[in-house]
Specification:
heterodimer; A: 303 residues; 7-stranded mixed β-sheet; 5-stranded mixed β-sheet; 39% helix; B: alpha/beta; 5-stranded parallel β-sheet; 11% strand; globular
Chain lengths: 303, 261
């Protein structure tokens, strides 16, 4: 299995070999997959040091000159720390700058709350023109560079953990068109999630024969209101805060009659012991989720 | 040349003063302190540009990092024919394109500014782009001295020096005033020259209202005589040519009453 990050950069590297507009701006972050890049394409690799504000500003300047900058850092530092740089550069001017944040949610578990990213989805998706993508698996990560080349400002949330691919055959068209839905029941109950946690949701829902949907990108695609029927009940499960907020806003804007509830992380996790344990504390582990989902839809079957 | 530049400078001050007073918005004193710098850049054959083709690829890039001085730049861009002079009368109205801070939708403006501490980083990105493509245009960034309080300015300062961006020229409008007080009373910026030298920049200090001095230093970096980015610290008076505004920080964002005009 390949990590999301390496799948992403390997794929970007292949594009960058022939597309000289692609530059990688790193805020002093490396990756095994970047070593070859630095050797072969030194002029397309820019290390700005631990200076995230400048990373975004340099990316803005280069995007204005026709480059396609990818700015790479640990997720909280390339999102929360630089909110205004994102707004005043790529967002206001609608520039093709892609922010690549590694460590969505509690990825950096024992690094502590400074490195957890539970607020970024909510904050960055509140910036007009920004699209936020939470990567589900490495197959998706390998396709995401192509999405960046479509010329929109993007924030990509990569997870540090690697799970078997859920979407081995995913294409750019899939990513641009619709959300993956596992329709296992005929009713109108759906559990929504994204990122690494979606793997757990997927497993639980499969056992319980409940529908699940991977809301990997915000703002939501038009397909969402078509694919989820009227009067549906949606339970949002997220390793952070933001997906449920976005969905509530969508329901309100589109005047839909869906009923939304959710479980997420509303306070900082300040103790240590690994992501698995942290998810238990946050009631996001498989066992607790399974119980919660059954409670939410009492007639769920355990097969 | 000196008389010509002085005529243009007076035109710019008269124009921006009228625009701000009529609409009761804008930063008159901050705009006035950099008028001579802008006039030297645009009328002194320093910047290379084409008003008929604002995005002509070989133009020099200019970023007004102190976006609150936009009114001064508007007067110049209109005079040079980047857009219709009638736009100046429509300043901050729904029919016009000119707002309190410049936006990238105005011909002749590279990037919208208004929040401080952006110009040097974005300008560094542009200068690096020129370098990577082996293009010869220069990037000029006009900053306020207040922007030296922003951490992002110093992040960019390190970056530009490390990358030997000798195609980048920054000008600090050193008027010694912030929005509420004199800089050295608020939080001292001195010794400013030593700071920039220590960060690896080539620094020149000039009288920011002396056209001869300005023309001498503004063209100087184009020869690229070494590998350092260039910093011109232009000593200015905030509110220059509007006597009652000089040396009084309270005029930062104020418009005069009818009696004061």
């Amino acid at each position: 299995m390949i990590a999301q990050r390496d799948a992403f950069f390997n794929s970007l590297f292949e594009l960058a070999k022939t597309d000289k507009r692609i530059v990688l701006i790193s805020a002093d972050m490396g990756a095994p997959s970047l070593d070859q890049w630095r050797l072969e394409l030194p002029h397309q690799f820019i290390n700005v040091g631990v200076a995230e504000q400048n990373a975004i500003n340099v990316a803005t300047g280069m995007a204005l000159e026709g480059f396609l900058p990818f700015v790479y850092a640990i997720a909280p530092f390339i999102s929360l720390r630089v909110v205004e740089q994102i707004k005043n550069g790529p967002a206001i001017h609608n520039l093709p700058v892609t922010l690549v944040g590694i460590g969505a949610g509690l990825s950096y578990a024992d690094a502590g709350p400074t490195h957890h990213t539970i607020e970024d989805l909510r904050i960055i998706s509140s910036i007009p023109n920004m699209t936020v993508v939470t990567c589900t698996d490495s197959a998706m990560a390998a396709v995401l560079p192509q999405l960046a080349l479509t010329g929109v400002p993007l924030y990509i949330r990569l997870d540090r953990d690697t799970k078997p691919d859920l979407y081995p055959h995913i294409t750019l068209q899939d990513i641009e068109r619709k959300y993956p839905i596992n329709k296992l029941a005929k009713d109108r109950y759906y559990v929504a999630s994204c990122g690494d946690l979606f793997h757990t949701v997927h497993t639980v829902c499969k056992k319980l024969e409940i529908n699940s949907i991977d809301l990997f990108r915000v703002p939501f695609l038009d397909s969402l209101r078509i694919d989820i029927p009227k009067s549906s009940r949606i339970l949002v499960v997220e390793e952070g805060i933001g997906l449920r907020t976005a969905l509530l806003e969508y329901v309100n804007d589109e005047q839909l009659d869906w009923s939304i509830s959710g479980i997420g992380i509303k306070s900082y996790v300040t103790d240590y012991g690994g992501r698995k344990l942290m998810r238990e504390w946050c009631k996001l582990d498989e066992e607790t989720l399974s119980a919660t989902i059954q409670q939410w839809r009492p007639d769920a079957n355990i097969s | 040349m000196q008389t010509y530049l002085e005529t243009k400078a007076q035109y710019v001050v008269d124009t921006l003063y009228k625009m701000c007073c009529e609409k009761r918005v804008g930063h008159i004193s901050s705009a006035c302190s950099c008028v001579d710098i802008l006039v030297a850049l645009y009328y002194g054959d320093v910047l290379q540009f084409d008003p008929n083709v604002p995005k002509t690829p070989n133009r020099d890039r200019f970023i007004l990092s102190k976006g609150h001085a936009g009114v001064a730049l508007y007067a110049i861009l209109a005079d040079l024919g980047f857009f219709d002079k009638g736009e100046l009368d429509k300043f901050c109205t729904e029919d016009g394109i000119l707002g309190g801070h410049p936006s990238a939708f105005i011909p002749g403006i590279e990037i919208g500014t208004g929040s401080l501490g952006y110009g040097l980083g974005i300008g560094s990105g542009m200068a690096l782009s020129a370098r990577l493509r082996r293009e010869h245009w220069m990037t000029y960034v006009l900053m306020s001295d207040g922007e030296c309080y922003e951490g992002s300015t110093w992040e960019a300062a390190i970056f530009a020096a490390h990358n030997k961006l000798n195609n980048l020229v920054a000008i600090i409008d050193r008027n010694y005033q912030g929005a509420t007080d004199f800089t050295e009373n608020a939080i001292g910026l001195e010794p400013l020259v030593e700071k920039w030298v220590a960060f690896g920049w080539d620094v020149q200090v000039v009288n920011g209202h002396d056209k001869t001095q300005l023309l001498n230093v503004l063209g100087w970096p184009r020869s690229r005589f070494n590998n350092k980015p260039k910093m011109i610290i232009a000593e200015t008076v905030k509110g220059f040519r509007v006597d009652y505004m000089c040396f009084d920080p309270s005029w930062h964002a104020r418009c005069p009453s009818n009696e004061q005009r």
